[in-house]
UniProtKB/TrEMBL annotation:
Residues 27-143 form the Alcohol dehydrogenase-like N-terminal domain. It comes from Martelella mediterranea DSM 17316. Its cofactor is Zn(2+). Its EC number is 1.1.1.264. It holds the Pfam family ADH_zinc_N. Coiled coil: none annotated. GO terms for molecular function: L-idonate 5-dehydrogenase [NAD(P)+] activity; zinc ion binding. Belongs to the zinc-containing alcohol dehydrogenase family. The gene is idnD_2. Keywords: Metal-binding, Oxidoreductase, Zinc. This is L-idonate 5-dehydrogenase. It comes from the Bacteria. Gene3D superfamilies: Medium-chain alcohol dehydrogenases, catalytic domain (3.90.180.10), NAD(P)-binding Rossmann-like Domain (3.40.50.720).
Length: 386
């Protein structure tokens, strides 16, 4: 009997791999065998702090909402999807009846179920697992030629595209992206494709800035060393720190736009609102995404190599602790992907070393992984003189 294997957060710094029974499908549902999962800033917040924004962890929850996989079972009444289809998962299941849904802004749904979110009780489990059950309406077919690992970027790219849609027409505009983490870097790449005239990426670390330049930034500013006085038509604030908003407003020129992507900590956030009035700055809050999910999938399919530059690490899901520690280090990691397909296989060694053709002696060594403090080991095989 097949079992599910899932990455479950119990509390800050308490991640576990757990076995779960598979539940029979009901009408309208599809079961996926998962392929890839991207580790998001919110997954890292649950891992490091046991919560994100106002959503505090109150019970164990499966993480993950940036997902690709293949259909492995269909419930009754499923049309349009068949076993074996490569798909990405829209992480939101909306009510379709509230004011947000009826006004065409489904990201504002008052009764949304979002994969890997602690906003409601019981929490909504996510998709870092071997098998995931979702409603067929949440699936999108992966276009021909788009690899499933890159397809897992659909969700975060949709976040970036929604922020761009909120900011307005970017073609020919001077744009500053503050914070060059995964969302900031995806913003840069998408802004380039959408015809922004000048794109500057700002951060406090050189590593993400180098990647931002690679995917389309004209200039990068390391704010610990340089902070030119330039003003911009549009400023995207994606730093994740409270005083980023203030700096963003300073950089917006008269009649400009400041778009805030990502979440604030609960409570008051200081900002120079006199500038918002005096310069008639439009401040745009940007929450998740709506139809931009489909736009993101198309954009990835057309430019998969370009977006693939942002994937810096791929880990087997068995190394989930290494993966989360690595993703937490923004001086060397951008987007970190979990290979969910190899779950539950344990260690497989397929090498016949009983007789070495060159007369050299095979040596197995169990070495510390070295990439993280989780204490995982790596098995290596070397040949030396016998
Ligand atoms: Zn995300
Ligand atoms: Zn709704």
């Amino acid at each position: 009997m097949l079992k599910d294997q899932a990455i479950v957060v119990h509390a800050a710094k308490d991640l576990r791999s757990e076995t779960r029974d598979l539940v029979p499908l009901v009408a309208g549902e599809v079961r996926l065998e998962m392929a890839w999962g991207g580790i998001c800033g919110s997954d890292l917040h649950f891992y490091r702090h046991g919560g994100t924004g106002v959503a505090k962890l109150r019970q164990p929850m499966v993480l993950g909402h940036e997902l690709s996989g293949r259909v492995c079972e269909t419930g009754q009444d499923i049309r349009g999807f068949a076993v074996g289809d490569a798909v990405v998962v829209h992480p939101a299941r909306v009510c379709g009846q509230c004011h947000g849904c009826l006004s065409g802004r489904e990201q504002l749904c008052e009764d949304v179920r979002f994969l890997g979110s602690a906003a409601r009780m019981p929490h909504c489990d996510g998709g870092f697992r071997r098998f995931l059950t979702v409603e067929a309406t949440q699936l999108r077919r992966v276009p021909e030629g788009l690899p499933l690992d890159i397809a897992a970027l659909t969700e975060p790219l949709a976040v970036a595209l929604h922020a761009i849609a909120r900011a307005g027409d970017v073609a020919g505009r001077a744009v500053l992206v503050m914070g060059a983490g995964p969302i900031g870097a995806l913003l840069v790449a998408a802004l380039r494709l959408k015809g922004a005239a000048r794109i500057v990426a700002a951060d406090i670390s050189d590593f993400p800035l180098a990647l931002a330049r690679r995917v389309g930034a004209d200039e990068t500013w390391n704010m610990t060393r340089t902070a030119p006085e330039d003003m911009f038509d549009i400023v995207f604030e994606a730093t994740g720190v409270a005083d980023g908003l203030s700096a963003a407003m300073q950089r917006a020129r008269r009649g400009g736009v400041v778009a805030k992507v990502g979440i604030f900590a609960p409570g008051l956030v200081p900002a120079p609102l006199s500038l918002v009035v005096g310069r008639e700055i439009d401040f745009k809050g940007c929450w998740r995404f709506g139809s931009e999910f489909d736009e993101a999938l198309e954009m990835l399919a057309e430019h998969s190599a370009q977006f693939g530059n942002l994937v810096t690490h791929r880990f087997s899901v068995d190394d989930y602790r290494c993966a989360f520690e690595t993703a937490s280090d923004r001086t060397r990691a951008m987007k970190v992907l979990l290979d969910l397909a190899v779950a539950n296989k344990g260690l497989e060694v397929r090498a016949d070393t009983s007789s070495s053709r060159w007369g050299e002696k095979p040596t197995w060594r169990l070495l510390p992984c070295g990439a993280c403090p989780a204490g995982n080991f790596r098995l290596t095989l070397t040949f030396g003189p016998s």
